[in-house]
Every structure is written in C-alpha cells, then in structure tokens.
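Severity: low
Component: inverse-folding endpoint
Summary: output formatting inconsistent between runs
Steps to reproduce: submit the following structure tokens with default settings.
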C-alpha cells in the first residue's frame, strides 16, 4: 500500500505525459489536410476556381491569407473595369448576375432609391437588363456573393493562413506535394493553384518570374519599359510645377513624393512597379459617413506638391469619385497628385510579410492624410474643402476596419515567365492566340511608376499608359502554366506569364475570375487523366469551358 502511494505521483505524471503526447499527435494529425485541389489565395480568382473545382466533383480546399474573401472586387473596386462585357462568361458572369439580383430588392436601397441612382446619368450604366447583369456595386455586396458561393458549394476555407515562404513548400519529382502555413497546418493536393495577387506560392516553388518593366526590345513591344513624355490619361503635370521645398532653390531639397533619380532611357526596362492605392468607398449621406480621420504620422508638408497643383488652377479632384449604389463611390486615382502613392511600392513583391504590412501602412497613412488634407488644409481651395467635407468613409462598409478597405490595390507584383509569354502584340491583335481559356478586352493600362525632375527643372510623372485594344483577344492556356521542367502541378491564373504592359489589360477582376475558373477546369482534367498541367488535352479543356459558357473567341 505504501509502495502504491509512493508510486502514485509517478503514475499520474506518466498518465499526464501520455495524454499530452496523445493530444500532440492528434493535433499533428488534424493539422494535415488533403484534397484534390488546393487553392492559395482569397481573391475573386480563388473563389471562382474553388467553385468550379467543386462543380467538377473535386475535393477542394482554399487556403487564404485573407479573412475577407473576394480580393479587390470586395475591397472597394465596385466600378468594374469591364471592357467588352460580351466576352465575360462562366462564373464571372454569374457573379455579376447575382449583383443584378441583389439590387432588384427594395431592401438593397437603404440610402438611395433605385430610380434615383439610375436616372441621374451617373457614369457608365450599371445595369445590363438584357443579360440581367450589373457591373457596379458596393463592396459588402461582392463579399456576400463570394461567401454565398463558398456556402452553396460547401467549400472549406482556411482563413488567415499564410504560406511559410521560406520552408513551407515541399516538392518531389518536379511536383508540389504539400504547402505549410505559418500556423503549422499542412495542405496536400494533386494540383495547386496560386490565386494570389503577389504570386507567393509560385515563387516558393522556384518558378521563374519577373518584377518590373521589361525593355520594349525583349518582346517586340512599343508600350512597355520606361515611357517618359507619354501622357495618355491626363495623370501628369500639365503646367510647370517647381519641385523644390523653397521654389527655385535646389539646395532646399525636393518636395515629398519626388524622386532624386532620373527615370532612365525611354523604352528600357527597370525594376519599378506601377503605383498602388486603396479603392476607397466613400459616402455623402450624413447618416452613413465617417469624417476623414487625421491619420498616424500626418504631416501637411507631404502634400505641398498638391497645394502647388491647386495653385496652378487644377480643378479635377472629384473626377474619379465614381458612383456606386446608395450614395457611395469607388474612388480611384485621378490627376498628377492623387491616391496613387507613386514610387513607394517597389519592394512590395519580394518583401517579407512584416515588410509588406509596413508598406501597406505607409500607403494607408498617405491616403488618409491626403483626404484629411483636402478637407481641412487652408492651402486647398475653399470650394474643394467644402465639397470634400461632404464626403467621408462609408460607415456600413469595412465595418471591422473603421470604413477602410481591407485590400490594397496590388495592380502588379510578380509575373510568371513560362515557355510562352503573352505581350501587347496579342492584346493589340498583332499576334494570334492559340489554346484560349478566356478573353480580355480592356486597354493596355498602366498607372504612373515614378515622379522625377525633368531636364527643364520641373516635376513630372512617368509610366501612365492607356492604349485601346482594337477588339477582344484570347488568353492562352500556355500563359497560366509554368515551364514543365519547373513545376508540373501548379496553375497561376493571376500572376500569369505576361509582359508588364500586356498585364495592364489582363489585370481586371472579371478576367481573374475567368482565368480562375479555367485553371480549376484544367486542374480537374489533369487529375482525371493522371497527367501534368502542361499535358492537359486542350480539346477536352475547350469543350468543358464552352459547356461552362466561357467565351474563348469572338466567333
């Protein structure tokens, strides 16, 4: 009896250790998840890819760094860049059809009557009645539709799960076998899809990619590379503006937002990126607006260049307050000094998560400061200040983030380099496209990339391009698959293999949805036929895509 009592603490300790080990093993087992298809990302492309995977009978998992699904479509970009709507099909069109259905209900119009929105001539007509689609919407409507897609198709989404970019990807014989997130979860699949704006999974798999602008000579282009002296959207300094803190005094230093570097030779490549911003959803309804807050690190000197633009007579501040339903906007960059934080995103694609968060915070502070400045600073014309003060962040959007968008507009980051690289020649109809898996139609569109001092001693922007595509064009399947020797079971529908300037046309949310659906269809075929993504039979893929009402050609 005495021995038993003496041994009791050790027995209890042994039991505790056994239980602890059992619990740990159970956690290890439960933290490994397997599927046919794993999609990394929470963008609109990720969700259409997941829906199509499920519709084709595949077990699919979405591993999303984002808590909120839908990317930019649910992040403020509600004034959709559609181009030719006729070539938007499949699940992308289903998304815009659901937007239409949402706004047919009287309950959708809380801050404005439907008739009032439609009859004021507010920009591009929002509703396409013939095809029962609607292309302009509030952010929360887009997010709800994305969540409905997920719920209806019983898709498992693991949110706030960040790929361990250093050691979280395992490969065997040229194929990805698993990815591990920073939380320790392991995801295994037969095929993976990178649907992020950054291309993090692609990069972790050591797939070739490019960041920045290629020289025009590389792909026989005209509108790639450095484009000094080209002004196609009006986002440049029309009148001479002095760049120095003390006008005329070079020794006083440059104003904030102006680079001391020269832009480089016209047509040459560089490692710079077109500017990012947040697509703010603003409201001018007194009961649904948050007064522009004074942000962290606010310094009115950061906006002195804008004060000089105003002093030159510029009056276009409100030209891109694009109206969406319920007295709200999708507010985009417009003019020589606006919401684009030019030159401050170059390090973003390759930055660590912590460094990216810092870059995003800098953009947020800059843009919040810009709005506060225009509503309050005496250097801003009084009529602008008064009108700006009637606007504020929409109170009923991004409610868990103080009305501020969750998603920064990553217009461009990494772009894959595969055996086939799409260029402006396909977009402009100069080169035929084979093996189409979707269509684009928007103009070659790049925002400004740098701001510098000209030889004449004035400030100027560079990188703003807008060249219309003569007609819709196909996007080849070969642009969304890596080189076979690099990875045989990865599809990349967002950071596809394409030049900088051609990406300026393809990088539209409807196109990402289209390519996400097509990527999932190809992944399903690769699984069914036990082949690599590069060897998927295109005829079989084409037949499935057409059955899904995707548009692949104009004919």
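Observed output (run 2 of 3):
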């Amino acid at each position: 009896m005495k021995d038993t009592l003496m041994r009791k603490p050790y027995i209890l300790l042994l039991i505790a250790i056994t239980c602890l080990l059992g619990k740990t093993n159970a956690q290890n087992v439960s933290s490994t998840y397997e599927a046919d298809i794993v999609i990394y990302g929470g963008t609109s492309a990720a969700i259409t890819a997941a829906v199509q995977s499920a519709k084709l009978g595949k077990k699919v998992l979405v591993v999303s760094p984002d808590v909120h699904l839908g990317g930019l479509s649910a992040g403020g970009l509600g004034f959709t860049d559609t181009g030719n709507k006729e070539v938007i099909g499949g699940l992308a069109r289903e998304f815009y059809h659901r937007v239409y259905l949402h706004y047919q209900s009287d309950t959708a119009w809380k801050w404005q009557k439907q008739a009032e929105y439609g009859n004021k001539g507010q920009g591009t007509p929002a509703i396409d009645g013939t095809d029962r689609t609607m292309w302009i919407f509030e952010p929360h409507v887009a997010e709800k539709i994305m969540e409905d897609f997920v719920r209806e198709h019983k898709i498992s989404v693991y949110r706030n799960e960040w790929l361990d970019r250093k050691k979280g990807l395992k490969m065997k014989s040229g194929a990805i076998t698993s990815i591990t997130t920073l939380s320790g979860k392991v995801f295994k699949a037969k095929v993976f899809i990178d649907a992020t704006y950054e291309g993090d999974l692609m990069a972790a798999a050591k797939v070739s990619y490019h960041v920045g602008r290629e020289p025009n000579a590389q792909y026989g282009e005209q509108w790639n590379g450095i484009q000094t002296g080209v002004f196609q959207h009006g986002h440049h300094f029309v009148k001479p503006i002095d760049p120095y803190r003390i006008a005329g005094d070079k020794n006083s230093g440059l104003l904030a937002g102006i680079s001391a570097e020269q832009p480089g030779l016209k047509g040459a490549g560089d490692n710079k990126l077109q500017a990012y911003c947040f697509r703010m959803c603003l409201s001018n309804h007194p009961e649904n607006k948050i007064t522009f807050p004074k942000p962290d690190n606010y310094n009115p000197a950061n906006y002195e260049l804008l004060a000089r633009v105003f002093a030159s007579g510029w009056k276009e501040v409100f030209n891109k307050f694009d109206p969406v339903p319920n007295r709200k906007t999708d507010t985009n960059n417009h003019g020589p000094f606006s919401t684009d934080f030019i030159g401050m995103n170059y390090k973003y694609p390759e930055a660590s998560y912590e460094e990216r968060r810092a870059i995003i915070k800098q953009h947020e502070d800059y843009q919040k400061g810009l709005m506060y400045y225009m509503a309050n600073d005496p250097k801003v014309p009084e009529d602008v200040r008064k009108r700006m003060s009637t606007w504020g962040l929409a109170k009923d959007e991004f409610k868990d983030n103080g009305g501020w968008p969750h998603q920064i507009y990553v217009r461009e980051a990494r772009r894959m380099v595969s055996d086939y690289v799409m260029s402006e020649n396909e977009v402009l109809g100069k080169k035929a496209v084979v093996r189409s898996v979707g269509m684009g139609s928007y103009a070659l569109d790049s925002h400004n990339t740098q701001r510098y001092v000209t030889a004449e001693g004035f400030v100027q922007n560079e990188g703003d391009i807008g060249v219309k595509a003569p007609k819709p064009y196909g996007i080849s399947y070969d642009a969304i698959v890596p080189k076979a020797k690099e990875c045989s079971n990865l599809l990349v529908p967002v950071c596809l293999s394409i030049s900088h300037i051609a990406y300026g046309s393809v990088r539209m949310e409807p196109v990402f949805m289209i390519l996400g659906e097509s990527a999932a269809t190809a992944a399903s075929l690769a699984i069914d036929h036990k082949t690599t993504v590069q060897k998927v039979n295109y005829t079989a893929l084409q037949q499935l895509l057409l059955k899904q009402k995707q548009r692949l050609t104009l004919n």
